[in-house]
Amino acid sequence: xxxxxxxxxxxxxxxxxxxxxxxxxxxxxxxxxxxxxxxxxxxxxxxxxxxxxxxxxxxxxxxxxxxxxxxxxxxxxxxxxxxxxxxxxxxxxxxxxxxxxxxxxxxxxxxxxxxxxxxxxxxxxxxxxxxxxxxxxxxxxxxxxxxxxxxxxxxxxxxxxxxxxxxxxxxxxxxxxxxxxxxxxxxxxxxxxxxxxxxxxxxxxxxxxxxxxxxxxxxxxxxxxxxxxxxxxxxxxxxxxxxxxxxxxxxxxxxxxxxxxxxxxxxxxxxxxxxxxxxxxxxxxxxxxxxxxxxxxxxxxxxxxxxxxxxxxxxxxxxxxxxxxxxxxxxxxxxxxxxxxxxxxxxxxxxxxxxxxxxxxxxxxxxxxxxxxxxxxxxxxxxxxxxxxxxxxxxxxxxxxxxxxxxxxxx
Length: 411
Description:
Blueprint: H1 3-13, H2 15-18, H3 23-62, E1 65-69, E2 82-83, E3 98-112, E4 117-125, H4 132-136, E5 138-141, E6 153-157, H5 158-164, E7 171-176, E8 186-196, H6 201-204, E9 207-211, H7 212-218, E10 225-226, E11 228-233, H8 239-249, E12 254-258, H9 259-262, H10 264-302, H11 304-312, H12 317-353, H13 360-363, H14 374-393, H15 404-409
Parallel strand pairs: 4-9, 6-8
Antiparallel strand pairs: 1-11, 1-12, 2-10, 3-4, 3-7, 3-11, 5-8, 7-8
Helix pairs in contact: 1-12, 3-10, 3-12, 10-12, 10-14, 12-14
């Protein structure tokens, strides 16, 4: 039988312990741990959720990695075509972790109505395009059916629809400037088959999705000429590694760029969330540890007479320290239990009901996204338990300063 654990359990279960002077201090310590783990869970889940959501949205519009002509400019418009027939299309033979490779071509244009106009980027895609991203954010209608010889269906954002005062199944006139200065602009009519709203205003305000054949026709390109390839990865965490591998696999006339390289300012901004989260975790653990140290000291001082009796009966300092450390660990676990219950409940409420909203102009999302993995949950709890326990070891040495003769004398 574990003697120290037995004594610790008897102290915790005793009525005198629950009604003692230390009871309010102990409750405060447990509450501090519960609040600490709750705040840590919320901070981690919102930071990770926001990072993943922004990355997913950017990948939905641009893919994880783009392969384009090496001498193409940095704009969103496809100026120099590349050949569709490449050794790596439709699959890289020597690379793993690639979910999909899809072709695209972009063309700048203007959408016009009788009273308004908006500049747009017409993104032409083909039958190999993964529509799962836009289907997730589809508000009305359906995605264009590209299994036709010519398709005039397009996908427009709700932002553009509201700006131009349009609705589903309306016909919209689009004007595209010719690359040759001497030629007149091309006017085309398209049917709005679907309306999406990702909340990512940077792309929602000007992105129109349709058939790549339309862009090829506008640019006088052949069927084998495209703007580039979008590579979708199975694991976003490998984007830097896969970016380098893909660059080494493609022809020297082609260039590959990851979305991190294309939009460094956005990714640098979301990386700042990690620093904030680590700061919050450190502060919360420190506060919880200080409260537990206070509670432990009060518990020891309240049990001075018991410590003296145990020493008189032959218990050593290490054994008595273990009693109080077991006692404190029980309080920590109690705080962790309630903290997890509250924290995960709040995360679940936000995930399903999306009560807290954000300004998409600033944060690129309309509501706070939350995500917490099982591994992160375990690491937070185990890390908090270990850190608090280690902080309690030094104050527990106060037991060694208690003299049996003096403590029993005033019993």
